[in-house]
Amino acid sequence: MIRGLAILDAVPIDEALAALRRPVRAIHDPATVTAMLEDYRAGLGVDRAHDDADRAAGRRISSPALVLWSSDDDMADLYGDVLGVWRNWAEDDRGHAIKSGHHVAEDNPEDLAAALGGFFSRLPAG
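^ that's the sequence the OP posted. Answer follows.
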């Protein structure tokens, strides 16, 4: 399994450099930085207000929900039973921690893809 920057040894150098340049370019684009900050701000403001309103109205997620999180980040420290948090919101929640740091998709794409594939393959077609 390739994790983190070890992927640089597994791909041609020009592809690796191109992959590294994209996020560097993005964080130098003021519109991208603004969007990133607004996403964080919404999580602390309007998103929370919408969550509170949904909870007060008794709304829950009725479709199956897959909850995945990093094993080596602070989710469990902050929330304890991460999956348990979602049980208050979703009628059918399932999931688990994935061995990774904060950036699951970059740190452990294989296990993330397997979890997503397994989840989606078990859903009814339609």
